[in-house]
Amino acid sequence: MSSSVLKYETAASTSLLAEVTRRSGQNLQACYQCRRCAAGCPVGEETGVTPDRLIRLIVLGDREEAVNNLLVWKCVACYTCGTRCPNNIQTARITETLKQMSKEAHAKPLTPRIADFHSAFMTSTRHLGRFNEIEALAIYETKTAIKELSQGKVKAVIDEMIGQARLALDMMKKKRLHLGVDRIKARSEVQALYEKAKGR
Amino acid sequence: MTQLAYYPGCSLHSSSELYDVQCKMVFNNLGIELKEIEDWNCCGATAAAKTNDFLAVALPARNLGLATATGLSEIVIPCSSCYSRTLVSQKTLAKDPGLRDSINAELSQKIKGDIKVSSILEILVPKARSGELAAKAVKKLDGLKPACYYGCLLTRFPIDMDVPDNVENPQGMETVLKALGAAPVDWSYKTDCCGASASVNDADQSQLLMSRIFTDAVARGANCLVATCPLCQFNVDAYQAEVGKKFGIEKQLPVYFITELIGASMGLDPVEMQVDRHFVDAMGLLKELNLL
């Protein structure tokens, strides 16, 4: 990250900062690095980059680092950073924006499992109008297994399958596994919203 | 019977169907009929916010149109994620008429007016304060020491707005449970994230977050956790045994929906409320406290 300070270019900084500011609706320039957000961030210890540092990366115009850091992908959207920010900057909105920018640029997500899970959720919801736990999980697990097997991560795939099978069995025992398919009548209306979302 | 519009959300129609059943039973006992809105869709939850700003507003907006069409003045949404997304959609559209028109163009039931969007606590807390809740109780929740767990989305929102409870130290659940004779513990993790949206795709992270919640609840002497959000409830219930083993937390706590405890005080049948469908046994403590 230190290298970006040396490479600082006004043009790169201005364009990235303007784009993130507009899309997230957050005034990043109001950040004075007090790090209250970092103190409250529940994933900060694991991600290394905390909300204050993410803002700094964007201000410095480091597009590559701004999208490819663990905070963007592991952020749990708990909104603690924004609630505690004295300048009302909601960094969770910024991580949401950066994830969307990464997807639009067809960049490889740093943590494919997280990206693929949310994408499977949206695919299932588009299809039925409602979130279907079994369908979404099937889409997600299949995609993850194919990707990870092609990378030789056989053990990770087996562990995942055992874990999910155990949970499914547990859910079955407790009558928490819903086997019916809930679909809405006006699916075309929901799908029209999805179509409109593409053009925006 | 008062009528309220009702949005159960996908969770209450699948893995947390018990919460749907309990909400209806408890509200019915309070003289409130929950009228489920017709043909509602998924609110998009955390996934929409992470993938598409337009859908994050548009999906709950369609439900707001349907809710308005009922002619009722208030809609109650028990799931914190659905509640938050719907409320944020409503507030966003109030400030952005262009976006509202663009979404309305696709909807058969248009968004208009501003139906009041409420969590279940916004209905229950005034009834606890007025004494109405205690008047319906046939049993006291003596010996119950709950750690009230709010999670993220009841008090923290991605936009600047008024919040109906204290953001850092909410008291809604405590108010309700104290009115019924319980003794909630004071603790530090009531609004910390349990990582429900990450439990499948980033399990190590979500289990680490849960371990902190369990450790503090046990250390404070709680004999159960209480939640209003079905995503939190499922997460901290289904994974508790695994997290306990991994982090060396020996004691396991039942994770009640607040409706189960209110229902128990009202003398409603726990089996009918499906309290036997928890991962960490939740019937045992009710039996021990003579609440069955």
Contiguous low-pLDDT stretches of chain A (5 residues minimum) are none
Largest Cβ-defined interface: A-B, 59 and 59 residues
Classify the beta-strand content of chain A into a percent band: under 5%
Q: Order of helices and strands of chain A, N to C?
A: HHHHHHHHHHHHH
What count of domains describes the coordinates of chain B? 2
How many beta-strand segments of chain B? 7
Q: How many strands, which pairing sense, and closed or not: the largest β-sheet of chain B?
A: 4 strands, parallel
Shape, principal axes of CA atoms of chain A: globular
* CATH first level of the largest domain in chain B: Alpha Beta
Strand ordering within the main sheet of chain B: 2-1-3-4
Assembly level? heterodimer
Write down the overall mean pLDDT of chain A: 93
Give a verbal description of the structure.
The complex is a heterodimer of chains A (200) and B (292). Chain A has 200 residues and is mainly alpha-helical. Chain A has helices spanning 2-6, 10-24, 36-40, 44-47, 51-59, 63-67, 70-74, 80-84, 91-104, 112-128, 133-150, 154-173, 187-198. Chain A has two domains: 2-104, Fumarate Reductase Iron-sulfur Protein, Chain B, domain 2 (Orthogonal Bundle), CATH 1.10.1060; 112-198, no CATH class. Chain A contains 13 helices and no strands. The two termini of chain A are 32 Å apart. The model of chain A has no long low-confidence stretch (mean pLDDT 93). Chain B folds into two domains: 2-118, Glutathione S-transferase Yfyf (Class Pi), Chain A, domain 2; 137-288, Rossmann fold, CATH 3.40.50. Chain B is 47% helix and 9% strand. Chain B contains 14 helices and seven strands. In chain B, helix 10 (203-219) packs across helix 12 (240-247). The longest helix of chain B is centred in the first third of the chain and has 17 residues, at 53-69. Chains A and B meet through helix 8, helix 9, helix 10, helix 11 and helix 12 of A and helix 3, helix 4 and helix 10 of B.
